[in-house]
Design goal:
Layout: H1 2-27
């Protein structure tokens, strides 16, 4: 179960990073 939670956290971090990249592209 712990591994699943860990994967979920990684998934969210990647998702936030992706959103961050999208926002930066919009800003330029």
């Amino acid at each position: 179960a712990r591994k699943h939670i860990h994967n979920s956290v990684i998934q969210q971090i990647l998702l936030f990073n992706n959103l961050d990249v999208q926002l930066h592209k919009h800003a330029e």
